[in-house]
Specification:
Layout lengths: L17 H10 L18 H13 L8 H13 L7
């Protein structure tokens, strides 16, 4: 059976063959070091961390009588964002 792979290295997954192997070949003689991260890391994603902080300040253990009260709390959070800085 003829091999359908065009790379000298065997693929480790069923994704595209040319992408990572050509980059890896280039980086072998480069000063660039790649740091591989997990596919999804909530603790490393800044927007996820900001969203968690927003939820703690606005959502957790709070009841808003009307949607307008919730909207005002959200706007107040963003207006006073500088006060949360360390």
């Amino acid at each position: 059976m003829a091999s359908c792979w065009r790379s000298a290295r065997p693929p480790e997954h069923h994704g595209a063959v040319f992408g990572p192997y050509t980059v890896a070949d280039y980086l072998e003689n480069s000063r660039i070091n790649i740091l591989f991260l997990p596919l999804y890391s909530r603790h490393l994603n800044l927007i996820e961390r900001f969203w968690k902080f927003f939820q703690r300040q606005v959502h957790y253990s709070r009841y808003y009588e009307a949607f307008k009260d919730y909207e005002n709390a959200c706007q107040r959070f963003f207006r006073e964002l500088d006060s949360y800085a360390l």
